[in-house]
Each structure stands twice: as C-alpha cells, then as structure tokens.
Amino acid sequence: MSMKSELKRKSLHLTGLVVPIFYLLFGREATLTLVGTAFFLFVMLEPFRIIEELRDNIKRRLRIYVDDEVFERVEVLERHIDEITRSHERYRVAAHIYFAAASFVVVYFFSMEIAVGAITVATVGDALAAIVGKSRGRHRFPNGKSLEGSMAYLLSGLLILWPLVGFLPAIIGALSGTVVEFYGIPPNAKREDQLDDNFSNQLTIALVLYLLSLL
Questions:
Q1: Maximal C-alpha separation, the chain
Q2: pLDDT per residue as tens digits for the range 112-130
Q3: How many domains does the chain have?
Q4: Which GO terms describe its molecular function (predicted)?
Q5: Smaller CB count within 10 Å for the chain: N or C?
Q6: Do 105 and 36 touch, CB atoms closer than 8 A?
C-alpha cells in the first residue's frame, strides 16, 4: 500500500477516537449505545462490501433513482474504500467491525480510565506505528515491522496512559500493546490466522491495566 493510501487509511482509523471522546463527554451508557449501534450497522452493511454481486445489484437499482452526478460520487467513494482496504480484508471481516466489537467489550467491562486509555492507545499507537514505520522505518524485522514504528507506538502509549493510570502501569500497558502490535496473537502466525489487531490491542491493554490495578 502506498504512503498516500496508508495516510488515508489511518485518517479514517483515527475516527475511532470518537469513542473515548464520547465516553468522556457523555458517560458509559451513552457510549455503549453509540458503539453497539455502530457495530450493528457495520455488520448489516458488511455483506455489500464483501460480496460484489450484492454491491452491483444495489448500484444498478440506485442508478434508476438518482442522477449521474450522485452515482459518480458513489463510485468515487467505492474506489476510495477499495484503495485503503488491505488485501487480506477484501473478502474477510473489515477492521472497523473488530474495532467496534472490542470497544464495546472494553467500555462494558472496564473502568473509564482503562477503557479510554486502551481505546486511545490502540487507535493512535496503531496509526503512528504504521505512518512512522512506512515513512521513517530504517531498521526492519523479518515480519516487515520497524523499530521506529514500534517506538512510536510505545512512546505515544506511554504519554496517553500516564495521566490516566500512573507512570508504571502506563509503561507496562504501552509495552503490552507494542508487543501485541508487533507480534500479533497468536505470535508470529500468518496474518490471516491472527486476531485482528484492532480487536487484540484494545483488549490486551485493557486486561493488563486491569490486572495491574488489582496489585
């Protein structure tokens, strides 16, 4: 994926920050409603993204009722979505569904500080790791990840978590997210056999922070 496409993808990815911001402004119950509704809509629309025949049928019917200008905008949007979709996602569940599912679990089961921290780190850290790794990554590992990208994740995670949970839990929480982002779950398996990192990162950070809070 080109740098331009990666920036588009991560710009869309950063809209996930709506969840922690919404939580801080409106509280737990409203956030669960927002994320649950988003998850439901994502799941309902997902077949139209994956199954080309369904999408083509919708487009043929749409052309009957809308003018050419609107139809052209729909096709432009479709091209943008295809451009930022990774090859392994084209015929599998997309990242935003995993993100919404993990966010719902994290908001439901964990405290506000942990939920806000875990979702924010998973969102910002993932975006920075990809952008820094792609643009500045000079020290590469066999899995394609870079030292520079991993450091961007770790440092951003520390800065986000520190005011929420304290310095030591922030270090451990950020490090746990960095390790999961680097290796995946299960570690070193083929990407198609791993949990989506939009799911695993949030839950790992939240669980680690929760266990640390019990000590």
A1: 63
A2: 999 999 999 999 998 898 8
A3: 1
A4: ATP-dependent diacylglycerol kinase activity; nucleotidyltransferase activity
A5: C
A6: no
* Cβ atoms 202, 116 nearer than 8 A: no
Backbone angles phi, psi at 196, to 5 degrees: -60, 135
In the structure encoding, which two tokens stand for residue 62, read together? 């749409």
The closest of 181, 114, 111, 187 to 152, measured between CA atoms, is 181
Identify residue 28 by its one-letter amino acid code: R
Q: How many CB atoms lie within 10 A of CB 17?
A: 14
pTM across the whole model: 0.81
Structure tokens at 153: 């994740």
Q: Whole domain around residue 134: which residue ranges?
A: 3-214
Amino acid at 170: A
pLDDT at 75 over 90: no
Distance of alpha carbon 60 from alpha carbon 104, whole angstroms: 35
CA dist., res. 151 & res. 167, Å (int): 17
Return the axis-axis angle of helices 52-65 and 68-84, rounded to nearest 10°. Answer: 160
